[in-house]
Amino acid sequence: MFMSTRFSNARLLFVSGLVLTASLVSAQPAAVKVEGAWARATVQGQKGTGAFMNITAVQGTRLVGVTSPVAGVAEVHEMKMDGDVMKMRAVPALDLPAGKTVQLKPGSYHLMLMDLKRPLLKDSTVPVTLRFKNADGVDSQLELLVPVATTAPGPKTDMPHDHKH
């Protein structure tokens, strides 16, 4: 009887330790949070499109790459005015300052999905993997299923039906 009580206590301590460890792990915040992600729908024959989102990193991090099985090439891009001309170029990395939300949006930083293997249809999803490197040089990645839409998600801006002049 003494042995079984000792075994039960040891098992209880072990299980309690597992629960405590699981609680500590789940209580730690995610290193990177993505919100409002969407990819622009394409038409038949279109070979490239953009993906957009808001990214917030807990600590200073860099977005160093992107991949998607539907794209032959996926890159982080920047659009900006150069004189009177809007230019787009790939960037090797995008800084994500600690605690600050970085917007990837049309006309600014965004993800380019090029050499598409199939059209991206409205109301479908596209798998996208983001690769990060934190200030300590540690690599990580985040896999997303990004909704495909014709416009950014958000509140409707339709006028109320009872609008009177």
- What value does the average pLDDT take? 82
Tell me the span between the first and last alpha carbons. 87 Å
Helix content: 10-25%
Question: Helices and strands, in N-to-C order?
Answer: HEEEEEEEEEE
How many structural domains can be distinguished in the coordinates?
1
Estimated share of beta-strand residues: over 45%
* Rg: 23 Å
Q: Output the CATH homologous superfamily.
A: PCu(A)C copper chaperone
The helix/strand class is alpha+beta
CATH topology heading: Immunoglobulin-like
CATH class wording = Mainly Beta
How many DSSP E strands?
A: 10
The coarse silhouette is: globular
Largest sheet at a glance? 10 strands, mixed
Overview of the molecule:
- It contains one helix and ten strands; from the N terminus they run αββββββββββ.
- With 165 residues, it is an alpha+beta fold.
- It has one domain (32-149): Immunoglobulin-like (Sandwich).
- Strands 1, 2, 3, 4, 5, 6, 7, 8, 9 and 10 form a ten-stranded mixed beta sheet that branches.
- Strand 1 and strand 2 form a beta hairpin.
- The model is unreliable at 3-29 and 157-165 (pLDDT under 50).
Features:
about 160 residues; alpha+beta; Immunoglobulin-like; 10-stranded mixed beta sheet; 10 strands; globular; disordered N terminus
